Amino acid sequence: MRAATAAFVLVAGVLLTSSARADEAAPDVGSVRSGDAARALTSAATQLEPCSGVDLVKSLQASDPDGFETFEGAARGVVNGQGLLWRVERPGAKVSYLFGTMHSSDDQAKQFDDLVLRALARSHVVAIELPGASTKRVASELRRLVANRSFRPGGDTLRLLPEHVRPAVEARVARAGIPASVANQLNPWYLALALSRSNCAAPIQRSDPETADARIERMAHEQGAEVVALETPIEQVDALASVPDGVALRMLRDAAERNTRPEDIESTITGLYQTRRIGYLLAMRGPAWAGMFDADGYADFLSAFITRRNVTMLQRALPIISDGDAFLAVGALHLPGPNGLVEMIRSSGFMVTRIW
């Protein structure tokens, strides 16, 4: 299950960080949605205590060397599972680049390697998922769209869970600042999103809240490049809302029963990103993970939230890279796998080569 949670944390990051700048991505239509839910989430955010997560890959390596060796062998087999910067070219066209980012304001996420900076500097067009995602205008639009899609008129969300696990899920949701009366009126995907947020407060207030994506966008403008979008706000939220109820409910159940800690997932993602092995997430399955990472069991999630968006972004990207001199920056989990952007671009007639 944690493979699905990890993917959810990584690819939903832009929605979380953007909506947070518009007073949280809480529902705001109707008295319960605009009052109780928003106040509950805001209250929870102010009560967080400093803590830190555990890098689960490093933990496995230390606690079960044989299990880690088996896992790493499988992870190395993930198609395009290693690397963040790729050279895209074909005869008669100028070179373009594809770069995997983290939707984060963490310093380590936005300290770009010189190879990345040089590739960006050479490019006349810079395509990112959602330009202006950190601005108040776009954040407000995301918040409105999330609110419109998160409400469940029947008010029966928690009753969709098996009766014997419902109390544990209610308690876990309550710890996230959402009363059961409010949770019942929110779609499962929204509750899963809420529980994917870290329970930890930042150890210090970041002096630089700019995200990695926003930094790339700013640098593109400063060098006079044209900045274009690979997605629209409604496309991102539609993909999020398309996560099947069954998958989201399993994520809720797992968060409650296994006490899944979002901060552990975040630490694991950060560790894999820093070592340019983000595709390893797709290999987190089998005995070494004691059933907690089962990527095969969440094909519906990956199809709904990642592959669907990859298809849209590929359609927007192809004309751009056909002209060349372009730099594409997308969330890193959009790169690996047979349905990742690296392989999809390669299948579209381009030579795609890892350079970092």
Automatic annotation (TrEMBL):
| Record flagged with keyword Kinase | no
Natural source organism: Methylopila capsulata
Organism superkingdom = Bacteria
Pfam families cross-referenced by the UniProt entry: TraB_PrgY_gumN
Keyword Protein transport on entry: no
- InterPro entries attached to this UniProt entry: TraB/PrgY/GumN_fam, YbaP-like
The name this protein goes by in its record: Uncharacterized protein YbaP (TraB family)
> Which region is the signal sequence?
1-22
Sorted alphabetically, the keyword list is:
Signal
